Amino acid sequence: MLRKSRLFTPGPTPLLPVAAQAMASADIHHRTADFRALYQRVLSDLRVFIGTGNPVVLMASSGTGAMEAAVANLTSPGEKVLVLTAGKFGERWRALCKAYGCDTQQVTAEYGQAIPLEAVRGKLTPEMRVVFVQATESSTGARHPIAQIARLARENGSLLVVDAITGLGTTELDVDGWGVDVIIGGSQKALMIPPGLAYCAVSERAWQAMEKSKNPRFYFDLRKERAAGEKGESAFTPAIALVAALGAALDYIRAAGSGDLAAGRDALIHNAETAAGMTRAAARALGLQLFAPDAPSNALTAVVPPANVDSGVIVKDFRERFGAVVANGQGEMKGKIFRIAHIGYYDYLDTMGIIGALEHVIAKVTSPKHVEFGAALRAAQEVYIRAATSAQSLVASR
Amino acid sequence: MLRKSRLFTPGPTPLLPVAAQAMASADIHHRTADFRALYQRVLSDLRVFIGTGNPVVLMASSGTGAMEAAVANLTSPGEKVLVLTAGKFGERWRALCKAYGCDTQQVTAEYGQAIPLEAVRGKLTPEMRVVFVQATESSTGARHPIAQIARLARENGSLLVVDAITGLGTTELDVDGWGVDVIIGGSQKALMIPPGLAYCAVSERAWQAMEKSKNPRFYFDLRKERAAGEKGESAFTPAIALVAALGAALDYIRAAGSGDLAAGRDALIHNAETAAGMTRAAARALGLQLFAPDAPSNALTAVVPPANVDSGVIVKDFRERFGAVVANGQGEMKGKIFRIAHIGYYDYLDTMGIIGALEHVIAKVTSPKHVEFGAALRAAQEVYIRAATSAQSLVASR
């Protein structure tokens, strides 16, 4: 059969066609009324998408750029910070804090686990300026308990910075209600456009704390971006084509919510939740072990391969027989897990397709008789039926 | 008549259609053999485009990001540096060096002038670590004497960092021959793709100097990008769609050189030179004063409006009657000059079209009888005929 190339990776995720078209025809200048109107609309829509009343800034960089902005703007050399880490992106917080000379304390959990709250409580001391964590750790597929971590940070008087690059649009996050001071997102995730834009929402407490930071900063000076954004501009030349794509993607999400962007965002979260539930049920039906069974993220599902099988073989077979790009483990997890993404632009057909392929791939690396073809697909359908029913009631009760 | 919207701004410049198409269909993952091959080819092609044997790094940011990378990686707080400034982008070097706590000395020239070499010589002292300058100052349309500045920096033992964001692809720059240690470019200029990528080539002397810098750096750590680039990867998630566009643009430039990328780059420089020459001759034929007559850049032509006319009126009329977006002056030059770009994807028809429009626009703000319609166009044609003849001889003598 034909093999269409399809991404099932937790970023980049499949491009939204209308956004790709907007990007290709964005032959406009950024210091014009047209672009200012677009930029202002995008900033305002991002606030709704994030679910915050705090100012949002957008920058031309990968998500790591926004992570660096948080560290550079909120800390000073020698200050105590707390990094909560249970995977590769938690380790990036640690590397960043060390690069900026922070006195970096940490709470670690095993890969695949959520951050344990008791350990956080034990590490928090009054001089701890900032706590850094991920909403969902894309390297393991685990979700961290942000509501509870936010309460602990708040009680301790610390700022909380959440990398929600794969959390936004897949996970309910009550940013202002919980008191998340900085929340960070990236373009190539639930927003369904290519990488190259990062964004964050920043609380009043955090804006005030920035004034005290002694770190050098220029390109990532969030205050500069905020001031420019208030005039519908970016501090430096914006990634125009990506901003146009982002505008189209936010319009698409709004349309998915029948004109209500927040409802569209909730539908997107429900979509990821359903796809994740279907995939987890399918993996279990195949007798496969989930890598993060206790606190699974909706952004992606990390699956442990059958005994003595390198996950690279599975990733390769997905690509070679079915054109589907799933992710191997990263760093020390390479060969030990494979990861199927649900974040962004996936529908029922995509999800059932990849689960069908999963049956063939697993059948090939185990003894075929261990796989009962159709069982994983049926398990996924049952999840779908329950989810569709609950979504219908949700709509009916509005 | 219809008004097609066209950019005549010195960045963003008009999108190359094949690059826009490549961007819109770049639905690929960055940790794959296909993307690695693309990334490696782009890095290698950029070396040819720049004309250097030095390693090139690419980053997801605006050009200012690469400028910050040069400051963050090559200086330490309190160190003496020399900024050469005669416009808005020279002032950005100064702001960056100050943000990083450098002891920032400067040589300034009037807006529209080139940096005076005698003043540079007078300011260079043995402890001056780095000299920062623009190849062409896009805010004024002036070109700085990089060959001579490089000789002075070299004799003094200083590193030379050149922002060639509008210089590359418009201006002959013998990067290695002159000894430019860091040369910086951006995607939205001669490379004819949208903003969002910056790149730089770095000399062995500069790589060594980086080891001594005491500044914090993570996202803009050039050493990290170099190491990743050698494996065909980026240190952080790359702006995939823009990288795909860049690959297509470099292929287009190669094709313009009949399969020889360096020849294609030279053809692009000759193209900008011809368009600039045509535009300058046209402005003179209309009795207009050039803002940088002594050392004009090929990237753009800055023109002084007729007496008592705000250049904003001219910019507006270009847009409203002809759909052509030309640039006003920036900062303190706003209202005092207008700028027509020649960098990147412009041909004879574009150039004649904008010059024809210029005659109408100038006729409107002066007394019509002061404009002899067709005279500026004829002056441009004479320049074109001379340039085409010399280009033909060039090809014949190869």
Distance, first to last CA of chain A = 45 Å
CATH fold title of the largest domain in chain A? Aspartate Aminotransferase, domain 2
The coarse silhouette of chain A is: globular
- CATH level-two architecture of the largest domain in chain A: 3-Layer(aba) Sandwich
Report the count of strand segments of chain A: 15
**What's the CATH first level of the largest domain in chain A?**
Alpha Beta
* Average pLDDT for all residues of chain A: 95
CATH superfamily of the largest domain in chain A: Type I PLP-dependent aspartate aminotransferase-like (Major domain)
Low confidence ranges of chain A: none
Quaternary structure classification: homodimer
Task: Describe the overall structure.
By secondary structure, chain A is an alpha/beta fold. Chain A has helices at 17-24, 33-50, 63-74, 88-99, 117-123, 146-156, 175-178, 204-210, 222-230, 240-256, 261-285, 311-322, 348-365, 375-397; strands at residues 6-7, 56-60, 80-85, 103-108, 130-134, 136-137, 142-143, 159-163, 182-186, 197-202, 289-290, 300-304, 324-325, 327-328, 338-341. In chain A, the strands form 4 sheets. In chain A, strands 2-10-9-8-5-3-4 form a 7-stranded mixed beta sheet, sandwiched between helices. A 4-stranded antiparallel beta sheet of chain A has the order 11-12-15-14, covered by helices on one side. Chain A has a two-stranded parallel sheet with strand order 1-13. The N and C termini of chain A lie far apart (45 Å). The mean pLDDT of chain A is 95. Chains A and B meet through helix 1, helix 3, helix 4 and helix 10 of A and helix 1, helix 3, helix 4 and helix 10 of B.
